[in-house]
Amino acid sequence: MPAYILPGESSDERIKYVQWILDKNHHIKAIKEVFKNRNNWVEVDFDCEYSRDTAMNRIQEKEGEWLRLIPEKEKARD
Question: How many whole angstroms separate alpha carbon 9 and alpha carbon 16?
């Protein structure tokens, strides 16, 4: 998620907001704010695609179009 759209003054506040949204999801490995591609992002690391997709649907139902998870493509392995 782009960090600039999340409520909160600090990284900790934005991470806590994402944790609150994903409350019942037990498949989260980590939530952290990172700087990638010239922007700040809040990254959520899931242990499987199914739980990621479930979280994406939950956020869409709960928050509407203003907030959504943007899945990062996995890099191809040689």
Answer: 12
